[in-house]
């Protein structure tokens, strides 16, 4: 991918967007997706334009990440329009795909956290979660390839896969806190990530676990 001045790539993954295969990149400046064989991004979300993210449920047949960003258009002070892009991982190994997607979820969560700490977060711009799922900016629907706003049909608005619940609206119970501790004690990599994001104060505890409910659900069985 053609880089901006001072830009470095942190993560790269094989994904599909708008029903086309390509590469998703996360850099120190933006989230960018290039069609296969192209070096020019077909999708670009600068860090400062990122608003919300959501992911497919743990039992979904597809591993997806949906990102909503503000469009830098209009006069100063005008309400910004938004665009949504959905990326689908192409790896045959679902667990490997989920683990790879977690890298992007963590990076985007960090952007939200830094913005909130700086007092520049727009209302509702944090990650939101579905009761049985994970991050979502608004009520959405059934499993699908991508959002209609990014040119793909198949992800209806309203329904069962995603729901809107503000992170931290319901305090964790003593049982869930113990479950979180058990998970961290058995997962060294997750414990390391928890320490770097939560213990350091960069990401709130509830926000960290909001995109990892599938891990807690698995541990609870």
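^ Assign residues to that structure.
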């Amino acid at each position: 991918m053609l880089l901006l001045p001072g830009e470095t790539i942190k993560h790269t993954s094989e994904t599909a967007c708008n029903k086309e295969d390509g590469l998703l990149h996360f850099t120190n400046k933006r989230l960018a997706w290039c069609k296969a064989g192209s070096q020019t991004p077909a999708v670009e979300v600068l860090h400062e334009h990122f608003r919300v993210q959501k992911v497919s449920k743990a039992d979904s047949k597809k591993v997806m990440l949906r990102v909503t960003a503000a469009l830098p258009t209009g006069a100063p002070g005008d309400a910004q329009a938004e665009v949504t892009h959905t990326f689908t991982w192409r790896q045959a190994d679902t667990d490997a795909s989920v683990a790879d997607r977690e890298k992007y979820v963590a990076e985007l969560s960090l952007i939200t956290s830094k913005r909130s700490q700086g007092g520049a977060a727009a209302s509702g711009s944090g990650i939101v979660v579905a009761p049985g799922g994970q991050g979502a900016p608004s009520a959405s629907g059934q499993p699908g390839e991508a959002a209609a706003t990014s040119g793909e049909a198949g992800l209806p608005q309203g329904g069962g896969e995603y729901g809107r619940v503000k992170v931290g609206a319901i305090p964790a119970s003593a049982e869930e806190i113990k479950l979180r501790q058990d998970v961290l004690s058995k997962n060294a990599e997750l414990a390391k990530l928890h320490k770097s994001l939560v213990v350091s104060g960069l990401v709130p505890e509830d926000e960290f676990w909001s995109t990892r409910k599938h891990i807690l659900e698995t541990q609870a069985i």
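Helices lie at 94-117, 174-186, 188-199, 205-210, 213-220.
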